[in-house]
Design the sequence.
């Protein structure tokens, strides 16, 4: 099922082995500058109920059991990193993303630019024929050659790998959030609610997230106002002031993927992965503009999936976290 939500470069041609965890060397605490910290939200530490075990939970994803988890207080960005912010990073550092190194990335078939039709390569994803490998698709050309982000500076940057996100974090003096931090922040202070705003997907008939509307993958009615990505603050913030933690783009987390949760009798105060790592897959959270109830419904707060750290798609981005200055 992971290929449906987050296809991996290892499933297509030209897999180069770039990335592979980026030599992260283990979790490191990062205290941001005073100016950076002032623009972030502080999430109070303490225990919260993480995960989900109801009939919406996806078998094999390790959403359950519901477990009490303690996290320290931490800082997190209100919004995902935008195209404008990533462009500043690239100009300042000359950074080349994994998609640019590979020479291609995954684009949803219905979004491939007309000028990029001749650049589609054989990169089929088993069980998810709506993906296309497109040459030269990258953060600055999200739908392939001929596309641009010039009119989407406040949209989330996409076609970024875990490795790319980690590098941006180091440059910005921040880091990727752990999975526990991400879920605590995404819940917005609500206890076991299905979505960041409650249990009703469209309360009072109003859309609260950018997800697929209509029949997937044939028709997106864009009833929520968007066919692909939306600006990072297009919908109301949750109780902690975070925007777009459901839908829009999947968000990379620090943790390696695990479905083997160990629930200690007395939860330790920690922000590192709870269960043992499984290979070098990394966790992504939050769902995207492609999520639909008919095949994944992973825009729920507890939903999760994974991808290899060098993989890039047109629906994966990130936001950053940091530790609270003393």
Sequence:
């Amino acid at each position: 099922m992971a290929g449906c939500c987050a296809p991996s470069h290892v499933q297509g041609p030209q897999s180069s082995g770039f990335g592979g965890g980026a030599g992260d060397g283990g979790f490191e605490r990062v205290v941001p500058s005073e100016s950076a910290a002032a623009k972030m939200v502080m999430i109070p530490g303490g225990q919260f109920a993480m995960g989900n075990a109801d009939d919406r939970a996806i078998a094999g994803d390790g959403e359950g059991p519901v477990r009490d988890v303690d996290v320290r207080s931490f800082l997190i960005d209100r919004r995902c990193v935008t195209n404008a912010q990533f462009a500043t990073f690239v100009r300042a550092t000359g950074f080349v993303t994994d998609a640019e190194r590979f020479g291609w990335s995954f684009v949803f078939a219905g979004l491939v630019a007309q000028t990029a039709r001749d650049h589609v390569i054989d990169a089929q994803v088993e069980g998810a024929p709506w993906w296309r490998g497109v040459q030269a698709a990258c953060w600055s050309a999200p739908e392939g050659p001929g596309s641009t982000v010039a009119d989407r500076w406040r949209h989330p940057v996409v076609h970024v790998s875990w490795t790319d996100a980690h590098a941006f974090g180091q440059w910005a003096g921040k880091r990727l959030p752990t999975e526990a931090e991400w879920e605590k922040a995404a819940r917005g202070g609500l206890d076991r609610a299905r979505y960041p705003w409650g249990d009703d997907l469209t309360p009072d008939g109003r859309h609260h997230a950018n997800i697929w509307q209509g029949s997937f993958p044939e028709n997106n009615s864009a009833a929520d106002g968007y066919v692909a990505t939306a600006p990072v603050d297009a919908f109301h913030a949750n109780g902690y002031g975070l925007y777009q933690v459901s839908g829009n783009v999947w968000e990379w987390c620090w943790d390696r993927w695990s479905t083997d949760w160990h629930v200690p009798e007395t939860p330790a105060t920690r922000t590192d992965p709870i269960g043992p790592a499984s290979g070098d897959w990394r966790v992504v959270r939050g769902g995207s503009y492609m999520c639909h109830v008919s095949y994944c419904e992973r825009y729920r707060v507890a939903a999760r999936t994974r991808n290899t750290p060098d993989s890039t798609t047109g629906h994966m981005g990130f936001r950053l976290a940091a530790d609270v200055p003393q």
Observations:
- Residues 11-25, 263-278 have pLDDT under 50 and may be disordered.
